[in-house]
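Can anyone check this?
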Amino acid sequence: METMGLELVAGRPFSQAHPSDLDAVILNETAVRQLGWASAAEAVGQRMGGLQPIIGVVKDFDVFSKHYEVRPVALRIVLDALDTVVIRLKEGGQAPLSFIEDQWKAFAPEQPFSFYFMEEGIDALYRKEQQLGRLVSGFSGLAIFIACLGLFGLAAFMADRRTKEIGIRKVFGATVPNIMVLLSKEVSVLVVVACMLAMPLAYGAMNRWLENFAYHVEISWWIFLLVGSLALVIAWLTVSYQSIRAALTNPVEALRYE
C-alpha cells in the first residue's frame, strides 16, 4: 500500500505482525458505501460476507481510466499467486534495472524477467485522447490561418471598394481610428454571426465527447465568451493592416481614384 501510494482513511494496513491478516481484507470507500456502512470507521472491524474481517479502508483510487467510475475494491493477500513485483524508485533517480534483474534471477530463476514503468501504462490509457488533442490542435491552427488569409483578402477588397468613401470621410474630419472602426465593423458582424452559429455545434460535440468519461469537467458559458472574444481580436488584428493603410491614404488620391 505504501509503495502504491494508497491513502489509508481508517483502520490499519496489512502487517507481518498479524498472521491473521492472510484472511483479512482492506476496502476502498466505494466498496464501503455499496456494502451499506455509513463511514469507513464503521466498516473497520466488520466482516465482509460474514467471513473476512475488514482491517482498514483506503481512499478511492482509479483501477481503470477516467472513462469508468471508481469500482468497489477489496484488497487481500494471496501468497500462492505472486508473479509481479511493484518497485518504487526514488524520484529523479535512474532505474537500477540491472540490479533489479539480478535480484529477480536470484529469487526466481525459472521466471523470465520483464518490466514496464507504470507511467507508461497510465499514458497508454489516455493515448487516444492525446492523439486526438494533437490532431484537433493542428487542424484548428490550420483553420485559423486560412480564416485569417480570407479576412485579410476581404479587408483589402473592402478598402479598395470604399476608397472614395474613405477619402470623403477624411475630408470631413474622420480620423484614423474612425476609418479603422468603419472597416472593422462589417468583419466584426460576420465574426459574431459565425460564433453564434458555431458555438451550439461546438457545445454539443464537446458534451458528446465528455460523455465518454465517468468523471469530467462541465463546459461553462465563459469559455465560449472567451473564445468569441479571442476570435474578434484575431479578426481585428488581421484587418488592422488594411484598415490603417486605407486610413492613411491621401484624401486627394482617394477622390481621384477610379
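Reply from J.R.: I decoded it. The chain has a mean pLDDT of 82.
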